[in-house]
Amino acid sequence: MNEDMLLRDISIFWCLLHVAVIFTMLYRPKYERKKALFLIFLGIGVLIVANWAGLWMLGHNRMGKLFLLTCTFPSLIYFWLLSADKNGKFLLTFCLADTSCLWIMVVTNLLDTFFGGERYEVMLVSRLILMPALEYGVYRYFRGYYLKLQNEVEKGWGIFAGMTMLYYVLLAVVADFPTNISEWPEDVPACILILLLMFFTYATMFTSLYGQFLLYQKKQSERSLSEQKRRLEQQLESQQQIRRIRHDMKGYAITLSGILAAGKVEEASAYLQKVASVVEPVFTQFCSNMYLNAVFAHYVHKFEELGVTLKLNIQVGEEELPDMELCQILSNGLENAWEASQKLPLAKREASVQMRYSREYLIIRIRNRCAEGLHVEKGTIPATEKTETGHGFGLITIREAAERLSGNMFCYTDAGQFVLDVMVKTA
Q1: pLDDT tens-digit profile of 29-81?
Q2: Closest among 344, 334, 341, 412 to 374, alpha carbons compared
Q3: Residue 357 is inside which H or E element, if any?
Q4: Which of 218, 281, 297, 380 has its C-alpha lying 20 to 30 A from 16's C-alpha?
Q5: Distance from C-alpha of 252 to C-alpha of 242, rounded to nearest angstrom
Q6: β-strand 310-314 against 361-369: which pairing, if any?
Q7: pLDDT computed for residue 393 by the predictor
Q8: Pick from 360, 343, 239: which is nearest to 291 by CA?
């Protein structure tokens, strides 16, 4: 292999590496992040070595025709196994990364043909510059809202995925079949038109995605206001109950005095027990924080109506806490647990909450028995089964609240239970 061919091959595998990087930035892994990164670059490393060996033995033209079989399809299957999504979201993400890089590869190939004399120096230098530039653009301007859209939007991905798949096949055919485009100068104008059309099509697609992102932000704002309203209503309800009990205490005292004046001690004791049963749910202190206590009081009562004792292990004191975010996390987590419990037979209903400190972090774990057959991998968010407008935001709201506190959220199933783990920084 001469020096020119070596430059060309280095540039090809430089592009393959960056395809993996861009895909990694955009997809949602099935495994935790470190394991997913290791598996991705292990797989892409194997593909690079195998395809380099193929170039060495078969030559560039022949490998160009086999590229779909030796690289695209194996990587498609491999990344599909690593992805949390097995639908249009995955296909769009995969094809988006591939076609964006392939677009740069075709453009740089044409630049080298016309300005580099096919010595591959222009190709190598331009790819060394453009691939990191593409990565920076994806990370800086696209990645954030694209990942949020994947979490928010469930429908409509198949159309965009089909568009990107067709563009990938079209570019692959035009650029390398039956031979490289540099050997067919009469087809270069058509290739340039396809490249321009793809650029404007993707610009239109990204504009549409951005519009959906703005809609997502609007819904997010509405959810935040809704959560604040619900928290205030819970506080108001608790305060009204306290006022009502205080108002009734005078009547309780008069009645009790009358019973005691009549010398009926046993009846007085029974009456006190009835009063205590009315007063206790309102004045029970589950934790020292009045806002969190209002949330716990509300849901303890709701679970009792289902015949479920909500087990609480709350290890927080009177320290200052981020009330708004923690109330959002607990309210949404307990609401999900309550709804799941409704669907189970009485004997199988159970739920618990644990709050404790681990160094500078507050750890919240909510567990509840879930339906048989439900399986949720750690790091993924299960789709809601509800079709009504306004549903399906609970876990997303929890994650966003945790992220505002420099924390994170994970949910998964374990031994027939749904587990919600939230870690937030309070210091």
Answers
A1: 887 778 888 888 888 888 888 877 877 787 766 776 677 778 788 888 988 98
A2: 412
A3: strand 351-358
A4: 380
A5: 15
A6: unpaired
A7: 54
A8: 239
Whether 195 maps to a domain, the answer reads no
Residues 316 and 170 placed together within one structural domain of the fold: no
Residue 234 lies in a domain: no
What does the alpha-carbon distance between residue 36 and residue 26 come to, in Å, rounded to a whole number?
A: 13
Residue type, 157: W
Helix (H) / strand (E) containing 188? helix 188-261
The answer to whether the pTM exceeds 0.85 is no
321: Cα within 13 Å, side-chain hemisphere: 26
Is-contact 291 235, C-beta < 8 A? yes
Ranges of residues in the chain whose predicted pLDDT is under 50 = 1, 387-392
How many structural domains comprise the chain?
2
Q: Is residue 329 part of a domain?
A: yes
Q: Flag whether 226 is in a domain.
A: no
| DSSP collapsed to 3 states, 120-172 | CHHHHHHHHHHHHHHHHHHHHHHHHHHHHHHHHCCCCHHHHHHHHHHHHHHHH
Do residues 358 and 424 touch, judged by C-beta distance below 8 A?
Answer: no
Phi and psi, residue 408, nearest 5°: -155, 170
Do the Cβ atoms of 335 and 231 come closer than 8 Å? no
Quote the mean pLDDT of the chain.
81
State the Cα–Cα distance between residues 269 and 271, nearest whole angstrom.
5
CATH number at residue 305: 3.30.565.10
